[in-house]
Design a protein that fits this description.
- The complex is a heterodimer of chains A (219) and B (484).
- Chain A is built from seven helices and no strands.
- Chain A is an all-alpha fold and 219 residues long.
- Chain A starts with 7 loop residues before the first helix and ends in a 13-residue tail after the last helix.
- Chain B has one domain (2-478).
- The radius of gyration of chain B is 21 Å and the shape is globular.
- Chain B has helices at 2-18, 28-44, 64-90, 97-115, 119-137, 143-173, 188-193, 200-218, 226-233, 236-263, 267-289, 295-316, 319-349, 360-363, 365-378, 385-399, 403-428, 445-463, 467-478; strands at residues 54-55, 60-61.
- Chain B is an all-alpha fold and 484 residues long.
- The chains are: A mainly alpha (219), B mainly alpha (484).
- At the A-B interface, helix 5, helix 6 and helix 7 of A face helix 5, helix 6, helix 8 and helix 9 of B.
Chain lengths: 219, 484
């Protein structure tokens, strides 16, 4: 069967879309926006393997279906529900302004490009933006984790960080055993599950989801 | 056998959740702990020349390093489980179902860590230990334990996520390293065999990420920030299991990565990082232990210090590796004494601050005395176990001309001794204050016997190391010896 369009052509634009989502998440104060952004990113991640690897087999299809279902639907649904029960809509006052977050995000993305050029990629991968996009997403996750007060925003930061790592994992998709991939997803899901339970307790204890109240323990 | 070691505690988790009685459930902890200990001893010292314990096509294998850590964890768990029924009987106001179930779940995951020969599987198990131990920290269900649990979950999950990225980097370094079909691998034996062909820049970056990631879980400074909160708020028994079990699993993970670096001539860099981080952790802990009012937080900083000593020992190399592995056991056992006795003191005074707690020896003669002796042991006083292991490390450092490391090591130990001593002496000495109404808690057989066993083992390790353990430690140390 003749190929009309090389699927690799789509990889680059989609990676740029992933990077753009990072900035949407960094600049938004509405929690719903960030949940949607992270969910969309999760679905995109599920698409990549079909574009990068010509033959992914049943194993790959199963894995991607689970990834998309979990990252694109399951976890976001669960977070939205937590948001509704807690009656929280916005991040009121992040540690640094949204402008500063965006700026730091941009600097980090630049540094990610620079850093990944120092790592020797194999010729099959050398043309791809995959590694810089992965590192930039990890960095964005870090920014969200450290500069947001709302517990749910920190969970979203953790999810973005995981998304970034997942992007890198795409390079190894063929070689990583299914057991490990599923284990990673299971841990991610359980992690978010436990975190949201803690958020519920947080909400009951302080009538708020802000981690600013968590300041009793210090030297 | 390998499956049984993991599946048995998992089955016990299910049993714990199924048992309806809050009163009888904790008694299954020592029963399960004893069975696990029996299985582990059989796995470590097989009769005759049975093949080594393995499974899943070589993904699971009990090597000497795994034996040291698994054997120790099983002993630690059993002794903590002995303490549990009496302790949980005092806490009959709340359900212990989740706590008891998760204790077995974390035992299963820790066992899996020690058996894993695949770095991906190892990662999954490490992250799972974080998740299943979180409810233990939240056992008291108050604002402070909530804060501690949140920080623990978030910081450790992020740290471990970095370790996952590091694992991927490591797998990438093995692409085209001579494996069949040019594939990448995370299988430990394959990585070791092909270590010289691994891509150096990727291996380098992988080590940094894995060290930071698992170092967070281990609680090395400056990634230790979850530790004082978690240990401060968790019940003493959970603290002992975290400080002796989970952190040692993280240490084992770092050792696995170090083994690959060592085979891939990246050892020099790894050792430098470990010496620096080790000393930095000790220094950091020393600073925060001076004038520490909260004696449970003090124990957390002591744990940071001793994790520092472990990596420092590996960094120094030679006999110090043997010393570090010995210290893994000695520190864990002594932490058992300290955490459980401090838990008793906390209970009896209703406070963990030196402002309120005085005269512990008077109110709790046994726990108070054990807390004091435990302090002497952990700060390296002879004739206890930690003295032997710390002495081995420092004498190796001097013998191999690493005077600066040895000097700083002794300096920090001295500061810790003084800082910790001030807090401990305030707690145990003097007249117990009138105003803190005694809540009827006093030393009983159930709350003291497990601590006495811990203490006896600490003393034993200082006076006489049983030959089978000695040879096991030597075999394990040989796996980490720097190549000539």
């Amino acid at each position: 069967m003749a190929e009309f369009v090389d699927p690799l052509l789509f990889v680059e634009p989609l990676l740029i879309l992933v990077l753009a989502i990072n900035f949407v998440a960094l600049g938004a104060s509405r929690i719903r926006t960030v949940i949607n952004a992270v969910a969309f990113q999760g679905v995109l991640l599920g698409v990549f393997p079909f574009l990068i690897h010509s033959e992914i087999g049943l194993r790959g299809v199963v894995l991607m279906a689970i990834t998309m279902a979990l990252k694109g639907y399951g976890i976001p649904w669960y977070l939205l529900r937590a948001m509704r029960t807690a009656e929280i809509q916005h991040e009121d006052k992040p540690v640094i302004s949204y402008m500063a977050s965006l700026l730091l995000g941009a600097v980090g993305t630049g540094l990610a490009m620079e850093f990944s050029s120092t790592l020797p990629l194999h010729e099959d991968h050398s043309h791809m933006l995959l590694v810089p996009a992965s590192l930039a997403t990890v960095w964005t996750g870090f920014l969200m984790l450290t500069t947001r007060h709302k517990a749910i925003m920190q969970v979203l930061g953790y999810l973005m960080l995981e998304n970034g790592i997942f992007l890198f994992g795409l390079l190894l998709l063929e070689d990583l055993p299914l057991l490990v991939e599923l284990g990673v997803l299971l841990d991610l899901f359980t992690g978010v599950f436990v975190m949201v339970i803690i958020i519920h307790h947080l909400n009951r204890e302080f009538s708020s989801m802000s981690t600013e109240h968590l300041s009793a323990l210090k030297e | 056998m390998a499956y049984l070691l993991i599946l048995f505690p998992l089955a016990m988790t299910a049993v714990m959740f199924a048992v309806p009685s809050n009163r009888w459930r904790p008694w299954l902890l020592p029963v399960g702990g004893a069975v696990h200990l029996g299985l582990v001893m059989q796995a470590i010292f097989p009769a005759g020349d049975a093949p080594p314990v393995s499974g899943l096509d070589g993904w699971l294998l009990l090597d000497p390093l795994g034996k040291v850590v698994l054997g120790f964890i099983s002993v630690l768990f059993f002794l903590c489980a002995l303490y549990a029924p009496t302790y949980l009987a005092l806490r009959s106001d709340r359900s212990n179902r989740v706590l008891c179930g998760n204790l077995f779940a974390s035992l299963a995951m820790m066992t899996l860590v020690t058996l894993s020969q695949h770095l991906g599987l190892l990662w999954v198990a490490m992250e799972a230990t974080t998740l299943v131990s979180a409810p233990g920290i939240y056992f008291n269900h108050n604002a402070r334990s909530l804060e501690a649990t949140w920080k623990y979950l978030l910081i450790c999950s992020v740290g471990i996520a970095l370790a996952l990225l590091g694992s991927f980097f490591l797998a990438y370094s093995s692409l085209k390293a001579g494996l069949p079909q040019n594939e990448s691998t995370l299988l430990f034996t394959q990585l070791i065999q092909n270590a010289p062909n691994l891509s150096r820049p990727w291996l380098h970056a992988a080590f940094v990420l894995l060290f930071v990631g698992y170092g967070t879980k281990m609680g090395l400074a400056p990634m230790h920030t979850w530790k004082p909160d978690a240990y401060g708020e968790a019940p003493g028994m959970v603290g002992a299991l975290l400080a002796g079990g989970v952190t040692n699993c993280a240490f084992l993970s770092i050792l696995r990565v170090y083994q690959i670096c060592r085979a891939g001539s990246e050892a020099e860099f790894a050792r430098e990082v470990m010496i620096f981080t080790g000393l930095f952790s000790m220094a950091f802990a020393a600073v925060f232990m001076v004038r520490q009012r909260d004696f449970k937080r003090m124990l957390a900083y002591s744990s940071v210090e001793h994790m520092g000593i472990l990596v420092l020992g590996i960094g120094i190399g030679g006999m110090a590796i043997y010393g570090a592995l010995l210290h893994l056991i000695n520190n864990g056992l002594t932490k058992g004494v300290m955490f459980l006795s401090s838990g008793n003191i906390h209970r009896a005074f209703g406070s963990k601050y030196t402002d309120d707690v005085r005269g512990a020896m008077q109110r709790l003669p046994v726990s108070g005395a054990l807390f004091l002796i435990g302090f002497l042991a952990i700060t390296g006083a002879p004739p206890f176990g930690p003295f032997v292991s710390e002495f081995t490390i420092v004498s190796t450092a001097i013998g191999s001309g690493q005077y600066l490391a040895a000097g700083l090591f002794l300096l920090f130990l001295t500061i810790v001794f003084i800082g910790m001593g001030a807090t401990v002496l305030t707690v145990v000495q003097g007249q117990a204050p009138e105003q803190t109404t005694p809540n009827g808690f006093h030393d009983t057989f159930g709350t003291c016997a497990p601590i006495l066993i811990f203490m006896a083992l600490v003393l034993l390790m200082g006076l006489y190391i049983p030959p089978p353990l000695e040879s096991l430690l030597r075999e394990a140390a040989a796996l980490l010896e720097a190549k000539p």
